[in-house]
# Entry
Amino acid sequence: MNNFVVKKRLSKLTMYNKKQKDQHSTPDHRTELSELGEFALIDRLTKRVKIKNPGTLKGIGDDAAVIELKDKVLLLSTDLLIEGVHFDLTYMPLKHLGYKAAVVNFSDIAAMNGIPKQITVSIAVSNRFSVEALEELYGGILLACEKYKVDLVGGDTSSSVKGLMISITVTGEAVKNEIIYRNGAKEGDLLCVTGDLGAAYIGLLILEREKQAYKADPDMQPELIDYEYVLQRQLKPEARTDVYNLLKGIGVQPTSMIDISDGLASEILHICKESGVGCKLYEEKIPIDTQVRNLAMEFRIVPAVCALSGGEDYELLFTINQRDVEKIRLVQGISIIGHIVPKSEGQKLITPDGLSIDLTAQGWDAMRKRVS
Ligand code: ADP
Ligand code: MG
# Structure
């Protein structure tokens, strides 16, 4: 697993810089998509697929997959990624892209308190991509499936005039009365978050900075070795599917939950809107890694802003009833960052010096002034 983290990424970035046209084929071989045709391509991309879940009765190879549910309910979610809009292949190796595209779907299922089980993968590709390039993409997707015990059960393959598009649909299993929606937060509940936030955004800033430096001087070698944690959070995020068992183990059923894909502020506002409540979020309680804090200051950003508006951390944000506070306090890796108040009190961020600001874009301007 670890062998395709930052060091390999570094060599890929370097390789790409030197050999732009050939970036995704091995040095001595590039198979054109036209040499294979659609059906042979599907075979080649999916030949390593092995079904892991007993509930997957039929995977790839028929007109539809067949899934058995027994006494559970089915969760269903989908995601569409467009080259140039959602990802930039200049610094996103295809294997990482595949991994991330799968994992962000698993994260949506985790946010419902379910377990991801199957995915379908639909791709549209231009002839700029070789067969080997698509094998890299599927290598990442299948690695994620392996790690999260998810079956790849189908998809669709098409050509595109320009660029790469990937759409992944995921199914998940849940026990009906364990599902957690965004709309269950109640006055007095505590706001909690898993892990630490803001690292994926700092990772993106580092990659953007290196891309600009490369544009200015194509001979430059990227200096990324010091940034392993933040780059990994950006290029190879993980879904918190472990939180289901963690919370079950301590007997806590959150009242609402969402995954953090767009930034903490936006996700808190979703919970507040859906639940019809307000909140107080304490800036100093937001969990931020030391490396993220230091790099944020280097970029002249208040560290909390990386967490609040950065996004792509794929941690879980949830609310719990106050009676569960002691159980949550005993768990490492979960932080209590605020609480739910009546809707009439609004959605507020409390700064370390006690200032109460609205959780809106306006607030970030106020915070930015602190570092200039
Ligand atoms: P259909 O003509 O019914 O759409 P296809 O020939 O497109 O069938 O697909 C054949 C089988 O391969 C189906 O089971 C389909 O789900 C699967 N499949 C097609 N494209 C992909 C892909 N990109 N990734 C994974 N499975 C795929
Ligand atoms: Mg098809």
Remarks:
- The CA atoms of residues 63 and 272 lie 42 Å apart.
- The chain has 13 helices and 13 strands.
